[in-house]
TrEMBL record:
<dbReference type="GO" id="GO:0000050">
    <property type="term" value="P:urea cycle"/>
</dbReference>
<feature type="binding site">
    <location>
        <position position="126"/>
    </location>
    <ligand>
        <name>L-aspartate</name>
    </ligand>
</feature>
<feature type="binding site">
    <location>
        <position position="129"/>
    </location>
    <ligand>
        <name>L-citrulline</name>
    </ligand>
</feature>
<feature type="binding site">
    <location>
        <position position="177"/>
    </location>
    <ligand>
        <name>L-citrulline</name>
    </ligand>
</feature>
<dbReference type="Pfam" id="PF20979">
    <property type="entry name" value="Arginosuc_syn_C"/>
</dbReference>
<keyword id="KW-0547">Nucleotide-binding</keyword>
<feature type="binding site">
    <location>
        <position position="186"/>
    </location>
    <ligand>
        <name>L-citrulline</name>
    </ligand>
</feature>
<comment type="subunit">
    <text>Homotetramer.</text>
</comment>
<keyword id="KW-0963">Cytoplasm</keyword>
<feature type="binding site">
    <location>
        <position position="125"/>
    </location>
    <ligand>
        <name>L-aspartate</name>
    </ligand>
</feature>
<dbReference type="InterPro" id="IPR048267">
    <property type="entry name" value="Arginosuc_syn_N"/>
</dbReference>
<feature type="binding site">
    <location>
        <position position="274"/>
    </location>
    <ligand>
        <name>L-citrulline</name>
    </ligand>
</feature>
<feature type="binding site">
    <location>
        <position position="262"/>
    </location>
    <ligand>
        <name>L-citrulline</name>
    </ligand>
</feature>
<protein>
    <recommendedName>
        <fullName>Argininosuccinate synthase</fullName>
        <ecNumber>6.3.4.5</ecNumber>
    </recommendedName>
</protein>
<comment type="similarity">
    <text>Belongs to the argininosuccinate synthase family. Type 1 subfamily.</text>
</comment>
<dbReference type="InterPro" id="IPR024074">
    <property type="entry name" value="AS_cat/multimer_dom_body"/>
</dbReference>
<feature type="binding site">
    <location>
        <position position="121"/>
    </location>
    <ligand>
        <name>L-aspartate</name>
    </ligand>
</feature>
Length: 400
């Protein structure tokens, strides 16, 4: 079944992506498989992952460090857009997919490969994200998805791998499916598939249980420059530092846990657990700073854009014309979104308690009810008459 001669495979070191290597070669006639593992801050021993790919039959095993790009070009864009899928999930896993796809396509071009491959099944969102992103970046590359077609159970997949020298997992594998990167963790499957079941504490890694968090609040200050977080507690931080430190600070107070029934792109509902402390706090703080620095009409109009933007990321359309057009709108809105937001962390909550900006549109002399009030109260009567005129006419016509 010769579909391609040279293939670049997105590689994680797990059972499925390891078995993809001999499967592509022996079942589909691929001559050469090059693996690519992206370092997104998942904390795995990527040197071991690299070795495993070679032992599984890869001709070359590559590891690329994309952490800085991941935060600067993907996470920060999502923060500027206040991107929360279904108003809850800050897209930590989804944001990594277009970046991995970009690395796959660039590697395929560099090595003269005629196809890229991944180990996604036919049920999830990631297959769509990889396939569509790769097609958008290079429509001439073939896209192979062996796990979507081989029809093997997990036991059969492990047995197939053993035939080609891939060892079965030595320890009992976790009953959960976990994906982790710098921005957070997603946890699904196992007992979590019962939507009435309370998640056990053992599944969490980045966030403390509320009972174990400090009893006293911790105040932090986050500085933004044109919508991008640049400072933490008065100190300039590089993108990776800022995310890592904020993950630790917020996670220590139990902030960033999400338990939701999510609408997948393929049409099914799934129960998803997420931990994403830094992203949860940053989006909340950024949105608050916008309320201080953007006009009312821009703020209200941007809310609809944000929902669309979140859906585009979730649905694998990062490299789409609509996403590019929305990027231009969002970047224009961010020109004045600079300032500092004060956040109180306590018992699972991140509460905005203060904000300041040189670009603030808040005018104390107009907002105050004190003696300094500059608002022309006499102007209100005429304004209300004009504003309410359509309603008054409608009432006269319909209520007699």
């Amino acid at each position: 079944m010769g579909r391609a001669k040279k293939v670049v495979l997105a590689y994680s070191g797990g059972v499925d992506t390891s078995v993809c290597i001999p499967y592509l070669k022996h079942e589909w006639g691929v001559e050469e498989v090059i693996t690519l593992a992206a370092d997104l801050g998942q904390g795995d021993e990527l040197e071991a992952v690299k070795e495993k790919a070679l032992k599984s039959g890869a001709s070359e095993s590559l590891v690329v460090d994309v952490k800085d790009t991941f935060i600067k070009d993907y996470a920060f864009s999502a923060i500027q857009a206040n991107a929360l899928y279904e108003n809850r999930y800050p897209l930590a896993t989804a944001l990594a997919r277009p970046l991995i796809a970009k690395a796959l396509v660039e590697t395929a071009q560099k090595y003269g490969a005629d196809a890229i491959a991944h180990g996604c099944t036919g049920k999830g969102n990631d297959q769509v994200r990889f396939d569509v992103a790769c097609a958008a970046l290079n429509p001439n590359l073939k896209i192979l998805a062996p796990a979507r077609e081989w029809g093997m159970s997990r036991e059969e997949t492990i047995a197939y791998g053993e035939r080609f020298g891939i060892p079965a997992p030595v320890k009992k594998s976790s009953p959960y499916s976990i994906d982790k990167n710098l921005l957070g963790r997603s946890i699904e499957a196992g007992v979590l598939e019962d939507p009435t079941f309370e998640p056990p504490e053992e599944i969490y890694e980045m966030t403390k249980a509320i009972a174990d968090t400090p009893n006293e609040p911790e105040y932090i200050e986050i500085g933004f420059t044109k919508g991008i977080p640049t400072n933490l507690n008065g100190e300039h931080k590089n993108p990776i530092e800022l995310i890592e430190q904020l993950n630790h600070l917020a996670g220590n107070h139990g902030v960033g846990r999400i338990d939701m029934i999510e609408n997948r792109l393929v049409g099914i509902k799934s129960r998803e657990i997420y931990e994403s402390p830094a992203m949860v706090v940053l989006i909340q703080a950024h949105r608050d700073l916008e309320s201080l620095t953007l006009t009312a009409d821009v703020t209200h109009y941007k809310r609809g854009i944000e929902e669309t933007y979140s859906q585009l990321i979730y649905n694998g359309l990062w490299y789409s014309p609509l996403k590019a057009a929305l990027d231009a709108f969002i970047q224009k809105t961010q020109e004045r979104v600079s300032g500092t937001v004060r956040v109180k962390l306590l018992k699972g909550n991140a509460t905005i308690v203060g904000r300041r900006s040189e670009n603030s549109l808040y005018t104390p002399d107009l907002a105050t009810y004190g003696a300094e009030d500059q608002f022309d109260h006499k102007a209100a009567e005429g304004f209300i008459y004009i504003w309410g005129l359509p309603t008054r006419i409608w009432a006269q016509q319909t209520r007699g």
